[in-house]
Amino acid sequence: MKVLMLAGGLLLAATATIQAATLDTVKQRGTLACGVSTGFAGFSTPDSQGNYRGIDADYCRAIAAAVLGDAAKVRFVGLTAQNRFTALQSGEVDVLLRNSTQTFLRDATIGLHAGPVNFYDGQGFAAKREAGVAKVAELDGATVCVAQGTTHESTLGDYARANRITLEPVVFERPDTMYQAFFSGRCDAMTQDASALAGAISVAPNPADYMVLPETISKEPLGPFTRNGDGQWSTIVAWVHHGLVEAEEAGVTQANAEEQAKGGSPVAQRLLGTSGDFGSRIGLDNRWMLNAIKAVGNYGEVFERNVGGGSALKLSRGRNALWSQGGMMYAIPFR
């Protein structure tokens, strides 16, 4: 019995060590290594000063603010579709926020944990306006630019076979070279997440010459990935997202967060660390979500600034609206 108890204790101790590994590493290092893309407008792309902007970049800052108390303590690591998961598996990055679609195989077979969805998207198509294409079926016989190593590559083939049309893929290793090829006329159309297509067109040489078709052919739930076996870190990453959504639901903004922490609703006070002692339960300061919201705002502010009306993309909230406003964004309660 003593042997079994000792073995059980050692197993629990080993598990606790594994689970605390990433949080301890980030705290000791003093920076968060965040895997992002280098060319998706609205999600993560460097501006003229080299500062990353976009929804994914803001999530990196929110996590850094929650864990380290400073949104500036992020090292952005630009990754391709081919090396993004390997970079997370190897420990090169602490969390992956790179327009990555959550799928069964990615969640179950590559040693990674899919976090909550932070953007509901779908695979779309872009084409020249002068082509007069109104729906995907009218692209029969077209050449289609697509990025290698993405779900879009396989979904393109599945869609063509299911609908008995011919779509000839022209495959590119990097999104930036794919964009260059499409805008130079090498392909008749281009396929990617609809939001990414809108972002690419917004910075094209002649944006008015192109359009994103209204039809999407897949579900593309995007969100963060962490490593398996590190439950504490995965919980932190997940609850930063839930906290940003809960903040929008509760009317907590970047501008009023400090005020709400002092005299807001019971939900706001739990969220912002005034009551409930939530942060200590996951190894963080109780001001963790207050710091995150002060750094980037609530989910609605993050959306609006990067891809909504306050951005070049002008995307509607659509599925990404709060559940109370007809969308699918729903925070697990802070209680």
TrEMBL record:
* Keyword set, alphabetical order: Signal, Transport
Q: Which InterPro entries match?
A: Bact_solute-bind_prot3, Solute-binding_3/MltF_N
The Solute-binding protein family 3/N-terminal domain is annotated at: 31-260
SMART domains attached here? PBPb
Q: Where is the signal peptide?
A: 1-20
Q: What does the record list as GO biological process? A: amino acid transport
Which domain of life does the UniProt lineage start with? Bacteria
Question: Does the record carry Aminoacyl-tRNA synthetase as a key word?
Answer: no
List, alphabetically, the PANTHER family matched: AMINO ACID ABC TRANSPORTER PERMEASE, AMINO-ACID ABC TRANSPORTER-BINDING PROTEIN YHDW-RELATED
Q: Provide the family line.
A: Belongs to the bacterial solute-binding protein 3 family.
Query: What's the protein name?
Result: Amino acid ABC transporter substrate-binding protein
Provide the species name.
Teichococcus oryzae
